[in-house]
Amino acid sequence: MATPSSALNKNKKIKAHNSMWEDHNAAAYMDKTRLGVDEDLVRFISSEKNEPAWMLEKRLESLKIYKEMTLPTWGPNLDNLNLDQITYYAKATDQQSETWDDVPTDIKNTFERLGIPQAEQEVLAGVGAQYESTVIYHNLKEKFRRQGVIFTDMDVALREHEDLVKQYFMKCVPPTLHKFAALHGAVWSGGTFLYIPKGIKIDLPLQAYFRMNAKGMGQFEHTLIIVEEGAQAHYIEGCSAPRYGIDSLHAGGVEIFVAEGAHFRYSSVESWSKDAYNLNTKRALVQKDAHMEWVGGNFGSNVTMLYPCSVLMGANSTSDHLGVAFANNGQIQDTGAKVIHLAPNTSSNIVMKSISKGGGRSIYRGLVEISADAENAVSNVKCDALILDDKSASDTIPVINVKNNSAVLAHEASVGKLNEDDIFYLRSRGLDEAQAGAMIVNGFIEPIVKELPLEYAVEMNRMVELEMEGSVG
Amino acid sequence: MNTLEVKHLTVKVGDKKILDDVSLVIKKGKTCVVMGPNGSGKSTLSNVLMGHPSYEVISGKIIFNGKDITKKKAEERAALGMFMTFQSPREIVGVDFYPFLFDTYKFLQTARKEKALSVFEFKKKMDKEIAALKITDDWSQRCLNQGFSGGEKKKAEMLQLAIFKPSFVIFDEIDSGLDVDALKVVGRAMKKFKKSDTSALIVTHYLRILQEIEADQVIVMSAGKIIQIGGPELAHRLEKEGFEKIIAQK
């Protein structure tokens, strides 16, 4: 999939992309919002959204846990993150748009630059795009409605499917998991709700697109996905954000419940602004004979902490974790995976690829835990790092915790550099240095990129070209 | 008109001088063969002519079609019409071969301000060249040179040559790693390329390629220097007497 086509016609398109990074709409509505988090704010968010009492209680309980907890020790240093200088809630529009025509023009322009309308026209089954903290555009295919599939935003889900939400909300990512999960529980806003009923199989990927677009604004969207017995689906979301001078914080939460015999794939391409902290928590509970797949691409952010977690709860359940991380100048990509094997005959597969450039640091941090009950568990971990220059670095921190002797585990790690002769070979064919480098990097991540829908794969290849601009090596 | 003029070229890698005062001229439409034992500097000459950034030109000039390209980058030389078939073509993991061919072709045509074929015309042309090179396996799912045998790699280089349409080609040991049949196919492709008013530099230490393609000029190198320049008859002498005798005479 890593064809050089996008590498070659870069000029015009990439310029547009560059200005995209710098562009943002006037965020006048931020006047109404405030810095830091306290009980008043949490109550304000809840009343703004007309939430039921139990949700407010949940928020307040999370806030209490947040206040008591210290920063997580798993992950990179977060000393420079000032949690009191973050805006925890903002609203871009007051109304929900039913059709594309109703979407405000400035917002539409932003999405157009990100290629949303075209993507919408083609293979996408439905779109719920989050602009700031309020979902403004939402489209659901009639067919899904007939099948009983629910694909909506969290605010609507809480109103129209309260019982379902109440049954599952923060049961997979409890506020006690770590400080940012607790923070998320207190101030979460917007996000996607997806419910796939028993036995329903959806071939097309379901998509949502997130965008953070206000100075110092935190985004705490909540994704709640319930895949019932024997159901199959693929959900994908992508993020991109303009660049700002002060730290932004993204601490989303993704909860996925994969019932017996179900198959679910969660894909995401994240490209937060380069001063943002991306401290996301993503977790799936996987039941008997079920299969969970994570496919992720991480660009952007100042510091990223992201370790999608599969809890293999039922016998014969399996999980695949595929990820790509690109750490450029000033960035720390601390990413990886966690798999907790709790049942017999469970197996997991982790493949991570990282690229470090211009002084960036990429760290694979992974946890594989085999419980005493997990008889005959199998886990394979493979991480490949590509370091593009002498200023950049890569680390591998695999934590393995085995309490059952029947487990079979393999860990494989490799570190490589850009080969000068490879670059020369491509340059002798007419590609410039950055194009040649981008082609090689795109080739390196191809095994993971090819798992994404085409337009996401193209976008990720473009992301690599953007990152490769300027000097290679 | 001269396609290539190399004037008193001296080249270093690190502290080591690897080309020493090398001068040669290739006239338009002519084929020059560079021979010499291993380590004589002939492959270095190929890489320097194509613009490998690891080599440092200490003095001298490379003139291509009347233009000084000594300081030009490899990609600029490619846009000007130079091409090199590599002795060991690089395996580029994850880059699909055929899309690479089309995209690079389009890019080169743009750089040369020439019109590119449409994707359908291109496919037709490519199929023709694939047949001519007797490439029978399906390469459409393969990455650039990845997992190719020695012979396949050389055919892949010749396929690129046929697509990219350079005016001057450096064949750096195109004949190494080829069996007799593959050598014939590659030789025929070289001849086809040489039918037009293109020029070539063939670097080799085997003479058998000269049964496939005629040389106008033969150059013998040793220890980074050109020690003899002659016509096709020099190749026959080399065949009879071997490098050592000719080098020893100098």
UniProtKB/TrEMBL annotation, chain B:
Domain spans labelled ABC transporter: 4-248
SUPFAM superfamilies for the chain: P-loop containing nucleoside triphosphate hydrolases (SSF52540)
GO molecular function terms listed in the Swiss-Prot or TrEMBL record: ATP binding; ATP hydrolysis activity
KW ATP-binding (keyword) present: yes
Keyword entries, A-Z: ATP-binding, Nucleotide-binding
Keyword Nucleotide-binding recorded: yes
SMART domains: AAA
Domain of life assignment: Bacteria
Family: Belongs to the ABC transporter superfamily. Ycf16 family.
Name the record gives this protein: Fe-S cluster assembly ATPase SufC
Organism: Candidatus Falkowbacteria bacterium CG10_big_fil_rev_8_21_14_0_10_37_18
Encoding gene (name): sufC
